[in-house]
């Protein structure tokens, strides 16, 4: 019985003297907000979770903005951080880097393969600038390296992919016949006049004629004209 009393006393003392060093649990919502804030801050600064970045957002240049626009063109899963070969060629074509003389499509493909990593099928923004530098020296042979790069950058800065126009529908004899009101028959014919213009409600509903003429009479109003202007 003594042992039992001692045990009860120990329980009471434990309840009365909690650990003052214990850290209170934080609500789950607060923890989620902290993780989200940390992730957004990391992405805006361009660093990983373990890296140290600037607290101020990095300003995107006009050249990088064009790079991102072409990087996500035609690919809903693209992040804009890398550019694949197809859109690289389109960028060079749409922005006028390819001129058919100093720079051809073959030159663009060769430079792309040269700057990208062997295990990758895309190029990063830094590799993109290196590729432009290669093409700039070939396109502007009479300029220095920096001047040539500046000229190529101007061709691309702020630009975006050129979207092709809507393809025109090819005229079909069958479609033309089905949409020609002069070839309609039956009740459909009554909905259009001789010029093919729709009659509106008059072509769909039987409207009572109160003019006194017989339905279907073709010379309505001719009598008044003869009386007013008799033939000479």
TrEMBL record:
It is found in: Cytoplasm. Keywords: Cytoplasm. Gene3D superfamilies: EF-hand. GO terms for molecular function: tubulin binding. GO terms for cellular component: cytoplasm; microtubule. One of its GO terms (biological process) is microtubule polymerization. Residues 1-56, 183-203 are annotated as: Disordered. Residues 27-41, 187-196 have a biased composition (Basic and acidic residues). Belongs to the TPPP family. This is Tubulin polymerization promoting protein. It comes from Knipowitschia caucasica (Caucasian dwarf goby).
